[in-house]
Structure to design on (128 residues):
């Protein structure tokens, strides 16, 4: 997605319910081991200079990692995912112009380079 077509009112200007913001803060403090491992690779613009936010609230949903420049949400899923809720949420995010890519916990631990390569490919394809 070119920068001029980024989803609007996500990083700034979005109204977020205080309870949802508190949940996101709690989730940032209590990330899963897989989320922590991926965050170490994404934080401080480490992945090719792209800026990621963690536990970003978007339209009332909380995504694990979000790159506004590319309109990309990255989800790290354990056993509690792959539900109808996730499918509905992904549809709503796609309608906002946000692409959602998911990785299983095992992929983060066992195939980190492949995960980063997949994220990198999407970032570069959608910001050119």
């Amino acid at each position: 997605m070119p920068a001029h077509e980024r989803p609007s009112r996500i990083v700034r200007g979005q109204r977020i319910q205080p309870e949802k913001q508190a949940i996101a803060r709690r989730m940032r403090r209590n990330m899963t081991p897989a989320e922590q491992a991926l965050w170490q690779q994404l934080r401080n613009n480490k992945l090719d200079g792209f800026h990621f936010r963690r536990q970003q609230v978007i339209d009332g949903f909380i995504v694990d990692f979000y790159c506004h420049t590319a309109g990309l949400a990255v989800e790290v899923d354990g056993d509690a995912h792959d539900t109808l809720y996730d499918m509905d949420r992904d549809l709503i995010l796609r309608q906002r112009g946000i692409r959602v890519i998911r990785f299983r916990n095992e992929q983060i631990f066992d195939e980190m380079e492949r995960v980063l390569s997949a994220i990198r490919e999407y970032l570069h394809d959608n910001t050119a």
Q: What stands out?
A: The helical segments are 18-29, 33-42, 84-95, 105-110, 112-125. The CA atoms of residues 10 and 66 lie 10 Å apart. Strands lie at 53-58, 61-67, 72-77, 99-104. The chain has a mean pLDDT of 85.
